[in-house]
Amino acid sequence: MAGGIITDFIVLEAARGVRDHAMSFWDAQVWATAKLNQIPVVLSEDFASGSVIEGVRFENPFG
What we know:
The chain is α+β, with helices and mostly antiparallel strands. It has one domain. The protein has a three-stranded mixed beta sheet with strand order 1-3-2, with helices on one face. The mean pLDDT is 93.
């Protein structure tokens, strides 16, 4: 989401992601943005490929 807006809801959900799923805050913001915007798949090399966190699946585009 290039140039997107980080809302209060995203920040609060990200903080919960840090607490509940032991993510870094920056990774949790990616997860929270996807979750709150109903984006089912995130392409990122920062998460374990194939992992699913509360309905958001992460795939590593590089293998």
